[in-house]
Amino acid sequence: MSTKFKTLGQRVSTAIIFGIIMIAGIYISPLSLLGLFGVILFLDLKEYFRVAFTNDHNAQKTYAVWGPVLCFLPYLFVIADKGFHCYHFPNGYVYQLIFALPVFIGLLIELLKKGMQVFSRIGILALGLAYLTIPVSLVAALAVQENSFHPHIVMGLLILTWVNDSGAYFMGSIYGKHKLYPAISPGKTWEGIIGGIISTLLLAWSFSYFFGEFTAIEWTVLGIIVMIFATLGDLTESMLKRNFGVKDSGTLMPGHGGILDRFDAYLFLIPFAYIYIAFISGWLF
Predict the structure, then answer these.
(1) Model pTM?
(2) Cβ–Cβ under 8 Å, residues 242 and 184
(3) I need a labelling partner for 221 at 20 to 30 A (CA). Which of 60, 103, 111, 174 fits?
(4) Rounded to whole angstroms, how far apart are CA atoms 256 and 268?
């Protein structure tokens, strides 16, 4: 068996197991969904800080341990709020304060350590908060509204992201000749992008027959949001890894890399999808 087909088989096997876990976690109950994405967030943060401080072992000893915990704290509040009370996100200053606290605590720790690279490290901490914690919190906001549960929205966007990635992978593997952005992601091609666009739009349009939250046009617009921002999210994580000289964010998922490698595109598109869904649904923030 060639290496290429062996890798493909490994990718498919991992994807099946991963898919079963995701479907079960998303659909069982609001609490299972919040818990599932809480685990995903924590693992994403661990990988993110390990990548970001690969070349700074002193910082890695500190931030790779308490950085994920600190950035995960705001999501614990989201779990308590959404999971047990099912209220809308408050319009006051509570969430602003909670999401700001990790940065100020990080500044305090650097002050006590007498760190000399305080602002670069706090910048990495703040980026992790914005890049990962806020999107996962918005997933919770999409799924759990006041007295209602919408797992189809979360699952629909996730499936569109998978299909966009798979369509681009298979089309690029077969027909790919023209590189999209070789300096950051040598494997991505324009042919792959076209494959992702076709598969995503066709599936998005059909979602109106299965997921009744939105019309065919609204799902198609969400498909456009997915194919644009999922690709940008994938490129962003590739840029992050290249900047720190890392090939994969982790090894937890054979054939796929780490958890962050699997959710980089999805989490990047969530804020943009949330804004559109909030607009058409009339429940802005």
Answers:
(1) 0.85
(2) yes
(3) 174
(4) 18
